[in-house]
Specification:
Layout (H helix, E strand, L loop, with lengths): L3 H16 L17 E10 L4 E3 L7 E4 L6 E2 L4 E5 L2 H38 L3 H16 L3 H17 L1 E3 L4 E6 L13 E4 L4 E8 L11 E5 L7 E8 L4 E2 L14 E9 L12 E7 L15
Antiparallel strand pairs: 1-9, 1-14, 2-8, 3-5, 4-7, 5-6, 7-8, 9-13, 10-11, 10-14, 11-13, 12-13
Length: 297
């Protein structure tokens, strides 16, 4: 008698050869590479994140004091915008005006005090009151307070035209060169490459299977061997993916959740910020049967 089961299997395989493996019964399909875990695309980046330094849309870059690969300290001057010379001139002018006003204030205070002493020595109350009032008028005419505020504004403008490092790190990219208009574009990017992580974009439907502490493996054609690490943080917002596969059939509008993975050894990717990697987050270990419950029951 014909074996209907065997006939069905042969029919299913023939259909699969013609139309693709998606028509195979579940038992006959090849397991997914991430069948035992969660697969995702990821990107290598500094733990500090990639810090991009920019300026206003109307600014231009005057000069840069660093080059690609330089190690810098927080607060170090990296360059200046084209508005810096004018801002510095305005700052110096405000500082000079304030210094002059303070000198006049000191001189007028001393003069007023001498006039009061002279009037008091003559035992004439009217002259004393006139001298005191004259001194007060003279002091009020010296705008020390407003000049102090004007200097603060000028200093702020000079600082805004100065490009400084917000963190300790390494210059990873230079997008603009002296003379080019910023037009809202970043001037350079930097980050602390002493500590690298992988930011994986996990499909929103897979995120329930990802927990902090799970191990992960990252591979790339640019790496001699896989990287390993552990999930240390899971995002709280769903957004569109920003990491794309080279596969033309891959989804470009996926809804994903960012997952941060700390690397066990980051030295192979210390100079490879933004490297795209394939990530497999291992499934958590199976739950042990309850105490006293026999296996298979």
């Amino acid at each position: 008698m014909p074996n209907h089961s065997d006939n069905w299997k042969r029919f299913a395989i023939a259909v699969a050869l013609l139309f693709g493996a998606s028509f195979l019964p579940a038992a006959a399909q090849a397991p997914s590479p991430a069948a035992s875990g969660v697969g995702a695309l990821g990107r290598v980046e500094p733990q500090s994140g990639l810090v991009e330094l920019g300026a206003g849309p109307a600014d231009s870059l005057l000069t840069l004091a660093v080059k690609l690969g330089d190690t810098v300290k927080k607060g170090q001057i990296l360059g200046y915008l084209d508005t810096y010379p004018v801002a510095v001139a305005a700052r110096d002018e405000a500082a000079a005006q304030l210094a002059e006003a303070q000198a006049r204030l000191k001189a007028q205070t001393e003069l007023g005090q001498a006039q009061l002493e002279q009037a008091g020595g003559q035992k004439v109350d009217v002259q004393t009151r006139i001298a005191r009032a004259s001194a007060a008028v003279a002091l009020a005419a010296i705008p020390v307070e407003s000049l102090t505020k004007a200097l603060a504004v000028a200093e702020a403008r000079a600082a805004a035209a100065t490009i400084t490092a917000p963190i300790d790190g390494t210059i990873l990219a230079i997008q603009l060169h002296p003379g080019e208009s910023t037009s809202g574009r970043p001037i350079l990017a930097m980050g602390d490459v002493s500590k690298m992580v992988v930011r994986a974009e996990v499909y929103e439907t897979d995120i329930p299977r990802v927990k902090v502490g799970q191990t992960a493996t990252m591979t790339s054609g640019a790496l001699a061997k896989p990287l390993t690490g552990r999930v240390v943080a899971i995002g709280r917002m769903v957004a569109r993916n920003s990491i794309f596969s080279t596969d033309p059939a891959a989804r470009v509008d996926a809804r994903v959740v960012p997952v941060r993975i700390a690397l066990d050894d980051a030295s192979p990717v210390a100079g490879l910020s933004n490297l795209t990697v394939d990530v497999v987050i291992a499934a958590p270990p199976a739950a042990k049967p309850a105490s006293g419950q026999a296996a298979g029951k």
